[in-house]
Amino acid sequence: MTAYLTINHESTSLHINKKLLQRRASWLMRHNKVQHHDLSILLVNDEEISWLNNHYRNKHGATNVLSFPSGIEGCTVADVNTALAKELGDIIISFETAKREANVLHISLHDRLTWLIIHGMLHLLGYDHERSEKEAIAMWDLEKKLIQQLQNSRSSQMTHLAINVDHVATVRNTRGTAEPDPVTAASICELAGAAGIVVHLREDRRHIHDRDIRLLRETIKTRMNLEMGANKEIIDIALNIKPDMVTLVPEKRKELTTEGGLNVSGQKKKLEKTIRQMNKAGIPVSLFIEPDSKQIKAAHAIGATYVELHTGRYCDSTCERDMEREFQYISTAAEEAYQMGLRVNAGHGLNYQTTSKIAALDTIEELSIGHAVISRAVYVGLDQAVREMAKIIRDASIVF
What we know:
- By secondary structure, the chain is α/β, with parallel strands linked by helices.
- The protein has two domains: about 5-150, Collagenase (Catalytic Domain), CATH 3.40.390; about 160-395, TIM Barrel.
- The chain contains 16 helices and twelve strands.
- An eight-stranded parallel barrel has the order 5-6-7-8-9-10-11-12, surrounded by eight helices. Strands 1-2-4-3 form a four-stranded mixed β-sheet.
- Helix 3 (about 95-105) crosses helix 4 (about 110-125).
């Protein structure tokens, strides 16, 4: 048995992760030992939930959630325009009310929907906050406990690992020889479990060279992500070799590594032109940005397919409080970007200690990691270093 989720009005501008909510509901069912039942969850608008509220409870206006235990006379599947099996019962949620409440509470829509699923499920299990103040307090405490337990559980979406091999080229270039070869390194990374290879072709060619790019395009078996600045020479190279995707990043000649995200809102015309060029060639574009709402909105407005959230400040935090604050920025930004329809990656500064928590975010598809893995490879070899990082990400993505 399982949890079924249906969304009325799929044309809504809200991008709701059905699989995420179904996984969370299934976890809650197992945790409450009702995993052998079917549960129906239906997301409707305010108008529909107002009708249900009035028809079955004689209460006017929209509410956030209604629960109908299996066997409630008169409450049929047809009444709510769905055809889902009912054993445990039905939970009906207004996504419009949930969105307003999420904004007031400063939490993500998915977190608010999860809380309402918990509230509705507890009603199906016999709890009722309207019977007495004592029961209301007990139900509230149990909701908070379940939310905390759910948050402490592992994520349920597999995040992918992409390895940046720029540092292999850097070592090679210091001696002006042919070794170590980033093309060979990329092959080892793929065999060890990497789902993609990232390379940054800089204007000054400080690490990856043009020849590397051509050879990598021919040999990479997974996916090639070309990081680049939005300048004409590099754009022309990208259009010629056609990587699987490009990630536009800021570049400063004197920086040791990329120091921060693009100011998308400040250079919309230039970036939008580049995105149009790439899209015309069938190349999706990611924008490397700070986890900031203004930049996310700008990225969406100019037609980016992805955003890659800069994780540098999170990784560089020196105390737990600062790290948690930066993590929340990333989590909130990933959620906002996903709800807008953007695909979400993340990277910069991630290592064997900081990766797990970011990999556990359901809205993030891929993590780009380079320096930490290549550094680890000095001690244990590249194959093992990649396998260790892949395991960290895989363990953080185990299904509930």
